[in-house]
Predict the structure.
Amino acid sequence: MIKYRKNIWEFANPNNFLRITNKITPFFIILTIITLSTGIIWGLFFTPEDYRQGSSVKIIYVHVPAAFLAINIYFMMFVTSVIWLIRRHHVSLIAAKSAAPIGFIMTLSAILTGAIWGKPIWGTYWAWDPRLTSFSILLMFYIGYISIWQTMKFSDKIADLSSWLCIIGSIFALMSRYAVFFWDQGLHQGASLSLDKKENIDDVFYFPLLLSMAGFVFLFLTLLVIKIKTEIQKRRLNILLSTGNT
Amino acid sequence: MILDFGKYSFEILISYLSTFSLILILVISTYLNSKKVKKDLDKFKNKDPNDSKKSQSI
């Protein structure tokens, strides 16, 4: 247990983080290419039509992974923001900041593909359904969080402010995940994936979807690691420039 | 045709195109930003050979 904890906090040191991630980034890139291309090609070309939704069910292979990441990236940002507020580890703050644009793109993609899918199935692009509404609020929180970092210069105060905003927004991330269980009146159906096999979608859709989700997760990890590395290097450069100028 | 998915071909293609266009923008911007910062850092290091101690402090 002690060894595990020590290993986790080794990532808090930027030099250790860079050393470890330099080694694993190529594997993440390879895994992204393999899982994402296999999942998408399998889902798009080798799965049958659904008996109710017809071929529109093929949108599931981009919609569900994007929505899954939209919620879980925000949850990751929540955890790293709490770590920043409690332990003041800069790498955790940089991780939250770097994850935000990826989460924003995933939320936007989930909303767009959901709207395109909704039109033939529900007869409308948009409805003020609990899950759709909580997703649009989540998108606003992503925009707010990114805006703070884009418009203000780095300081501990700004880092605290962005972390608190992230913590408040996590309520909506949680709502996005569980809205379909809280309210029954929405158009959106229940979760596509469940630990209960009876509630799951059929295996013929399930396995390519899992592969596609794995591809999106590896894509997120690859982009996150590269973004964190870039941010660490940018800070080094800024410090070098400021010490060089004085 | 390989991209004919029946009645909902348009919806499917637009969904995939929009998602992967957004992802592509993200990947390209991440790559270009990383290249730019790395280039600037290398340029600075070449200009100031005594910076190794400074970078260790960050």
Helices of chain B lie at 9-47, 52-56. The mean pLDDT of chain B is 83. DSSP finds two helices and no strands in chain B.
